[in-house]
Prior knowledge:
Blueprint: E1 15-31, E2 35-49, H1 58-67, E3 71-72, H2 74-87, E4 92-106, E5 113-127, E6 130-144, H3 146-151, E7 158-169, H4 175-184, E8 188-189, H5 196-208, H6 213-226, E9 230-240, E10 247-255
Parallel strand pairs: 1-3
Antiparallel strand pairs: 1-2, 2-4, 4-5, 5-6, 6-7, 6-8, 7-9, 9-10
Amino acid sequence: xxxxxxxxxxxxxxxxxxxxxxxxxxxxxxxxxxxxxxxxxxxxxxxxxxxxxxxxxxxxxxxxxxxxxxxxxxxxxxxxxxxxxxxxxxxxxxxxxxxxxxxxxxxxxxxxxxxxxxxxxxxxxxxxxxxxxxxxxxxxxxxxxxxxxxxxxxxxxxxxxxxxxxxxxxxxxxxxxxxxxxxxxxxxxxxxxxxxxxxxxxxxxxxxxxxxxxxxxxxxxxxxxxxxxxxxxxxxxxxxxxxxxxxxxxxxxxxxxxx
Length: 259
């Protein structure tokens, strides 16, 4: 049959990314506690399309994904992106997995365990013979407003805060470690299951440890700067304000190789 995608195109426009997205796909990822964890990812794959080709072969993205259907990690991502370049006759390829990642977490005083869901991501890119990978987590925490605590005779408003962290590393950093870094930078972590003594502890901990979104970014940046395994990071913090009709946010990107 005629290969329409390979028809010559005369408009002389190279397209940065062409591919498929929102592909729901079962994957297995490394888990620090259990060895592996099964989850379902939303996958995006793309290649750079040369100006002379009319289109790319969308089916080949899924074929390549099927070839690497096992455990997803740095080695798999690198091989997968290289294979995308070969199969689609491209100089650049990108792939991203976004998936729920579960961590078994104990309540702070009662010690009762429950599953805590976080959002995780793995991004890989192959460009002109070089591979790049970014690991990410999205973690929800609690922050308590320092200003509200300072000016109020009793009580202070708090908020659910979403922290997105993406890192490049020169050796493995577990998802669990990234989550813990974020939690240490907040007023208090969140938990799925809390008994009354746990709730009292978490509430008082937040009151004793007020944080602006700026504080979260800076505390997290200090810890990331001190970790030799991490060479680049991007932090985005957004709090859902409880007494304002808006959200607050702060962001920071730092390449430690430039310092």
